[in-house]
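Hey, I'm writing a tutorial for new members on how sequence and structure tokens pair up, and I'd like a real worked example in the thread rather than a made-up one. If someone can provide the structure for the chain below, I'll link this post from the tutorial.
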Amino acid sequence: MHLDEVGYCGLYCGLCASRRRIPTQARILRDTLQREGYDRGYYDVPGLEEVFATFWKGLNLLADRPCPGCRAGAGDPGCTIRSCAQGRDVEVCPQCTDFPCERLAGLRNYPLWMADAARLRQVGLARWTGEQEARAAAGFAYADVRYPELPPETGEDE
């Protein structure tokens, strides 16, 4: 079993928009811009000519180099989840004896994550990975059910 589609946190990379949807949409936008001649520069919107070369470079990166996943070094270089899992020699967090822990608070915007983690513990990593790939093949992505970012709590009553 290859783990390149499984984050240390237990999210399935194949369900992430950065791996599936964004590259496709970036290629569509790039192709559209090229057909219209805008690959040579965009001068119709004042100020855009100043940033267009950087935008074009970023668009090509999004189109041609989707996120390789945290196991390949992508994501937050200081990810405490990754370093903890590596240090404890577990393939994914849900396999850890201390699961769940405070390091996972960053995943609070993914409402299905805890249920997915419970399923992984129930059926094992190999079967779970197959189930996640079936979800991805059906077109599901985490962004479909992600909670919006909330501002940090201030401790004041609203």
